[in-house]
Design a protein that fits this description.
Layout lengths: L2 E8 L6 H12 L12 E6 L6 H15 L5 E8 L4
Antiparallel strand pairs: 1-2, 1-3
């Protein structure tokens, strides 16, 4: 079954306290070399049939109206190939 992935991230100008918390914890856990962390969300939608341009447009509308807050977040939509 085809899978469409929606990745949602805070816009660059928006503070990301969760990302900053992760960034602060990494050195305490012995990890170095990371200069910034941004935390986002990933949605995986399994769709019936073929993923057409119309299906992708519908997923974009879902992302804009429900899955993200367009005021403070950006999103991207892509098709993920199945492992089968």
């Amino acid at each position: 079954m085809p899978k469409v992935v929606v990745d949602v991230m805070p816009k660059p100008e928006i503070l990301d306290p969760q990302g900053k918390a992760v960034l602060g914890a990494l050195p305490r856990l012995g990890f170095s070399g990371v200069t910034d962390v941004r935390q986002g969300k990933r949605f995986e939608l399994e769709v019936q049939g073929e993923v057409t341009d119309d299906v992708l447009e519908q997923v974009r509308q879902m992302a804009e109206t429900l899955l993200s807050n367009p005021v403070i977040e950006n999103f991207s939509v892509r098709v993920e190939q199945s492992d089968a």
